[in-house]
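User: When convenient, might I ask for sequence and structure tokens for a protein?

AI:
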Amino acid sequence: MKLYHKILIGLVLGVLAGLILGEKAAYLKPVGDIFIRCLRLIVVPLILSTLITGVVSTGNIKNLGMTGISTLVYFMVTTTLAVCVGLLVANILQPGTSLSLGELNTFQAPESVGPAEMIVSMFPMNPMEALANGNVLQIIIFALFFGAGLSMAGDQGKPVANFFQSLAEVMFKVSDIVISFAPYGVFALIAWTTGKFGLDILMPMAKLIVAALIASLIHIFVSYTLIVTFIARISPLVFLKKTLEPALVGLSTCSAAAAFPFSMRAQKHLGVSPKVSGFTLPMALTINMDGTALYQAVAAMFVANAYGIDLSLTQQGTIVATAVLV
């Protein structure tokens, strides 16, 4: 069987085991926790090595700039599409109407962070601290500067560039080892989750879950299908089949970071150039979270419905802009 077959079986068996064992499924949780820890263990060195290698392989700063601009534009477009799909589905289903939370009397807004402060916080003062804390955005910024410096250093920078290329290859092999345990980790995590919470906790949130699920499926099977068909020029069925592994891992772990090694593997199977994937995928881990943006739109409508608040088109437009920027 292929790996995604095993992960899917682990997912189904995990649900059944959780329903049968109930709270005793907690004994399986350490297996899932170890799996998640191992995945997170490889994320930071994998991002650092692949991004530096990707920047060096672009050849010069001009090529890097063009790749960066194209990537950001693509991310903005897909995220905006995701939020709009989420709002459309939420407006049709009205997910919060099944709950009644009364009137919203008081609201304490959290302290907002300005755009300038957000941009400043992206730049690390200490790259070692960013690596130790797993601050992915700061690691990306450091890797971009470091990779650009290696490119500019020419022959003198080649030994260091070769080191990071070797590190990337080693981390891919380590990823293969960890990935092989995915079916067991997924089984343990889903069994524990199902055993602890059961299905009863889902009922009050059923419309919210259904709305988010429908919106996600539309974004996957319509937005992405159109993009891979008319821009990437590949079969949507091939694309969906080869990206099933990271999708299932993301579904079972609720973590984009945990799915990162599987996404790298999927890009390799799709034939994406390492020059592209080494640069774009680490960026995507932090600034192309379509599912998160989509869910924020659905959740905003859910809360508004529950409090009996009608959101105007202008207010919904603000949700789109806010979700994309966040």
The mean pLDDT is 87. The chain has one domain: 3-102+112-325. The longest helix spans residues 61-93.
